[in-house]
Every structure is written in C-alpha cells, then in structure tokens.
C-alpha cells in the first residue's frame, strides 16, 4: 500500500506539473515579468546578505585586532614595570594613585607594615589602603596573602577602599572569592596594565578582579 500510495502521489505530481506547464505557456506574457522580478529580488537579497556577512566578519576582525593590540601595548608597559624592584614598585603604585587624584599618599617601604604598603585618601575623602605584591607573571596570589590583607586593611587601618595590586596574572580561586566577599579591590596583571596605560582608579574600584563586589561608602 505504501508503494501504491507513493505511485499515486508521483502520478498526481506529474499531472500537476503538466497542468502548471501548460498554464505558464498559455500565460507567458504575464508570467515572465514576475519571474524576472523574483529572480532580481533573489539576486539582490543574496548580494545584500553576502555584504552584510562580510561587514560582520570585518567588524569582528577589527575588534580582535584591537584587543590584541591593546594586550600587546599593555604588556610592553608591564615589561617596564617588571624591571622595577619591589620597593620601586610600591612607589610606582603610589604615584599611580596620586596621578588619579589621591592625596596624602604615604609608602611604608618596610617589612612589618601589617599588610599596608601605601596609605592615602581618594579625592572624595575615602581612606585608601594598598597592598602591593611584586610577583612573577606566572605566579598567583594565594588565599593566605589575601587573608592577611583582609585581616588588617580595615581593622588596623580603617580602610574605606582596600586595594590589592599584583604583577602576576591571577589570584587563586579562594583568594579571589575572599576578595569579592570582603570587598577587596583585586587588581591582577591585566587590570594593572590598564591602570598603567591610563585607566582611572575610580573605574577599577568596582571590579574586584572579576566584576564582583561594590564600593564601600565613605567613612
């Protein structure tokens, strides 16, 4: 029955095709302008789609190139930072704070600073406490490093904004989670590179290294 049904459908299809062909032949003067119009629309639509795809491809290529160029330039700047000693790096970070309007920035420059390498005030009066770690790029900031800073930044120094800056590429998952929960601004190498290249400190404060956390209100 399936074969018979299939043959019937094929037969009816052939009959319909013959009828359509006869009708088109008898009304060719009316049909051909419509066919030409449909073909023209199809050609124009295909060309437009191709141009749109090419445009999207070009935009994406340009975006990727710009991102790669920004990374390259940031790494060139960070290469200069990598040459600094840890003492010079502390003063360099303090200078970045001053560049962005911070005042009364003081660098401890010694061990036993209880996790505060620099202390100052933002332009709006909030107290800023900075911990600086000059690590190799491939290293990660550990949870222990973050715990020490969390335990002293606000309890010992009364920080409104606690900033942890490092030259390595990442914080461990535990360290970053602690930073987000405790509202520590965690600047890894890429964010530091953006700061070095001119990003304002105020634009980095809400990030916490992962886009989480929020600013503390002024004390």
Describe the model.
By secondary structure, the protein is of the alpha/beta class. It has helices at residues 2-26, 28-82, 86-99, 143-153, 173-181, 189-196, 201-204; strands spanning 103-107, 118-121, 127-133, 140-141, 161-166, 170-171, 184-187. The strands form two sheets. Strands 1-2-3-5-7 form a five-stranded mixed β-sheet, with helices on both faces. A two-stranded parallel ribbon has the order 4-6. α2 (28-82) crosses α6 (189-196) and α4 packs parallel to α5. The radius of gyration is 33 Å and the shape is elongated. The protein starts with a helix and ends in a 15-residue tail after the last helix.
Features:
five-stranded mixed beta sheet, alpha/beta, 7 strands
Q: So how many helices?
A: 7
Determine the structural class based on helices, strands and strand pairing.
alpha/beta
* Terminal residue distance: 87 Å
Gross morphology: elongated
Largest sheet: 5 strands, mixed
Q: Within the largest sheet, what's the order of strands?
A: 1-2-3-5-7
């Amino acid at each position: 029955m399936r074969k018979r049904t299939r043959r019937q459908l094929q037969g009816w299809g052939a009959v319909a095709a013959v009828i359509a062909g006869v009708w088109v032949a008898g009304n060719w003067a009316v049909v051909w302008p419509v066919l030409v119009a449909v073909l023209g629309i199809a050609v124009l639509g295909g060309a437009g789609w191709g141009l749109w795809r090419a445009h999207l491809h070009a935009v994406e290529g340009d975006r990727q190139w710009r991102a790669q160029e920004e990374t390259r330039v940031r790494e060139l700047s960070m290469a200069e930072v990598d040459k600094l000693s840890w003492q010079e790096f502390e003063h360099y970070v303090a200078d970045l704070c001053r560049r962005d309007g911070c005042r009364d920035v003081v660098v401890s420059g010694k061990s036993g600073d209880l996790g505060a390498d620099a202390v100052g005030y933002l332009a709006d009066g909030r107290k800023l406490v900075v911990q600086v770690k000059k690590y190799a790029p491939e290293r990660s900031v550990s949870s222990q490093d973050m715990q020490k800073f969390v335990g002293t930044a606000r309890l010992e120094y009364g920080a409104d904004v606690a900033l942890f800056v490092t030259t390595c590429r990442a914080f461990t998952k535990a360290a970053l989670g602690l930073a987000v929960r405790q509202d520590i601004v965690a600047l890894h190498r890429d964010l530091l590179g953006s700061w070095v290249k001119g990003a304002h400190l105020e634009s980095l404060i809400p990030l916490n290294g992962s886009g989480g956390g929020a600013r503390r209100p002024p004390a």
